[in-house]
User: What shape does this take?
Amino acid sequence: MKKTAEIVVIGGGVIGTSIAYFLSKRWKKVVLVERDDLASGSSGACDIDIILQSKNPGIHLKLAMASAEIYKNLPEELDFDIEYENTGGMILIEDEEQLNVMKEFVKKQRAVGLQVDLLDFKEATKLQKGLAPHLVGATYSPQDGHVNPLRLCIGFARAAAKRGAEICLGTAVTNIKTENGRVKSVVTNRGEIETEIVVNAAGVFTPMICEMVGMTAPIKPHRGQIIVTEPVPKFVMGAVLCAKYIVAKYNPKLLEGSDDLETRLGVGLSLSQTRNGNILIGGCREFVGYNRSTTHEAFVTILKHATRLVPALKEIHAIRSFAGLRPYTPDGLPLLGPVEGIEGFIMAAGHEGDGIALSPVTGRIISDIILDGKTFIDIAPLSPGRFGK
Ligand SMILES: Cc1cc2nc3c(=O)[nH]c(=O)nc-3n(C[C@H](O)[C@H](O)[C@H](O)COP(=O)(O)OP(=O)(O)OC[C@H]3O[C@@H](n4cnc5c(N)ncnc54)[C@H](O)[C@@H]3O)c2cc1C
Assistant: This one.
C-alpha cells in the first residue's frame, strides 16, 4: 500500500530534522526520509559552533541572530540535552591589515545589533589562555555558543516523532514524480509516498534531488578537515576563530592558485572544546568533489597554523582527524523557499559552514512558508531561483 504524507522532508541532517520538528509542532503529517542515519552527512562531521560574529552583516547575520534566540529555549522545548551553551566567542587578529578588515566588519555587525567588541592583546589573553604574543588583538561577542550537532539532530527528530512525524531511516529517495508542474509523490527504495509537498534538505546531495524535477542547484561540496585532541580540562573559552578564517569563508577566490599551502587549502583557525574535553582544531576549505578523506597535508598545515596562533596547543596530543563536506553556494547564503514552476517543491539547502547555527531559524522559516505562505523575515535574497533555473 502506498503511504501518504502532507509533507515529505528529504534529509536527516540538522536542516531536515529541524524542519520536520517545526512542521510537526503544528501537527502536520510529516514523513522524513533519510537514506542512511540521522547526522550521517555533514551534520555528523563538523564543529560545534553557533557563531554569530562570523556572519556577514545583512540577511546572513539577521538569520543567525534569530536562530540564536530560538536556541535559548530549545533544550527545554525539545526536552533533550543537546549540549547547548552560550559560551561567547572570539576572532583572533594577527596583524594591522586584518585589524582594519575586522574593525570594519565589527562596525557593520554592531549596526545590525550584534554585541561585539574589539579587544587588545591584553584583554584577549584574559579570555583565552595560551595565545601567541604576536597577536594584535581579537573581536569578542558574548552571543556566540556551542551545541552538539549529533544530539541536535536526534533531539529534533525525537521531538518531531513525539508529535506524530514518521522518521524513515535507511530510506533513499530515487525519484520525485510531478504532474502538470506539481509534486505528486516521492519514490524511495522502500516504496512510494504520495504527497503534494516535498522539502529538499539533502545538504551537498541537493543537486541530485533537484535533477529529479529537472532543476539545477549551484551547491558544491566544500571539504573541511578537523583534528581532535585527547580530552583535557577546560582550555578553549568558547568558539575561537581567526581573521583568516573569515577571508577563506567569504573570498575563496582570493585563495585559489596560491603557492602557499596554508592559503591554497583555505586554512583558518577554528577552535572549540566538546563537553567531554576533546578540543576540535580546524580547519580548511577545499573543492575536491565528494571526497571525504582526510589528508596528511591538511593535518600538518592546520596544526602548524593553529599552534602559531595558540602555541599552548603543542602540549596537547592529537588523537584523530575527520573530514566533512560543507554545502557551498556562490554567495554563501542558503537556498530557501518554493521553486517557481514546480509547485510543492521547497528548497532548504546550501548552508555552507553555518548549518548548525542556522538550523533552528531554517526550520521555523520553512514551516512558516509552507503553512502560512509568509514568514517573519524577507527571504527574497535566499530565493532558490536567484542563480537561474
Ligand atoms: C568541517 C566542518 C565544520 C563545520 N562547522 C560548523 C560549525 O561549527 N557551525 C555551523 O553552524 N556549521 C558548521 N558546519 C556546516 C554544517 O555542518 C552544515 O552546514 C550542516 O551540517 C548542513 O546540514 P544539512 O542538514 O543541510 O546537510 P546534511 O547533514 O549533510 O544532511 C543531508 C542528509 O540528506 C541525506 N540524503 C542525501 N541524499 C538523499 C537521498 N537521495 N535520499 C534520502 N536522504 C538523502 C544524507 O544522507 C544526509 O544525511 C561545518 C561543516 C564542516 C564540513
Summary: The chain has two domains: 3-45+150-218+331-382, 89-142+220-328. The longest helix spans residues 59-78. The chain has a mean pLDDT of 95.
